[in-house]
Amino acid sequence: MENPIIQILVKHLAVEAEIFKAKNDIYSLNWAILALIDVDKEKASILEETIRALEKESEKIIGEVFDLTTELIIKFALGVRILKSKNRGNSLITKAMKILLKKSKDKNWFNSQETVSMLLFLLTDEYEFKSELNEACNWLYNKYNHFIGGKNYPNAIDSSFGLSFCRNVGLPSEEIIK
Question: Are residues 64 and 79 in the same domain?
Fold first, then answer.
């Protein structure tokens, strides 16, 4: 028998997913789906709907008709992560994700170590984005060193989370520990 608290949380999250679906809030819906994967088999139809919504949005991104926001790129990174967890690929969503990563790099990664850390967490094992993620790692490493130099340890700790998913950089944490 499953823990009753977990059962309640799953039911609550399933209700929230339905609300996000009704609001067409794909960003929040993707977070809910990621949490519900392999827990609630009844939500397969929601997964298909969110994939269709991402495909539709992918066409706009590929056609260069979109406003780049942190929510948009994280929404797509979540979609990629969900697809991977289901052992599914989607070339349209992958192509859009590559465009979003390139545009984010061009915008200096929104100057946000939190956004870059989240992208590295969500896309860590995605070979299709290896070069883009290596660039994100290098950017984050430079930010980390800047924060350490300025003794801005809260932001350095934020950066270290993302750097923990980077294979191409070492993470000297002695300064934070002091």
Answer: yes
- 136-155 pLDDT, tens digit per residue, is 999 999 999 999 999 998 88
154-158: long-range contacts, CB 8 A cutoff, minimum separation 24:
155/113, 158/113, 158/114, 158/117
Q: Which of 106, 136, 161 is the last residue of a domain?
A: 106
Domain count, the chain: 2
Q: What are phi and psi of 66, to 5 degrees?
A: -165, 160
Global pTM reads: 0.80
Using alpha carbons, select from 3, 88, 75 the residue that is nearest to residue 44. Answer: 88
How far is 35 from 13, CA to CA, in rounded Å? 8
Q: What is the pLDDT of residues 56-100, one digit of tens each?
A: 999 999 999 999 999 999 999 999 998 888 888 899 999 999 999
Domain end call among 79, 106, 133? 106
Expressed as residue numbers, the domain containing 95 is 1-106
Consecutive H or E run containing 149: helix 130-149
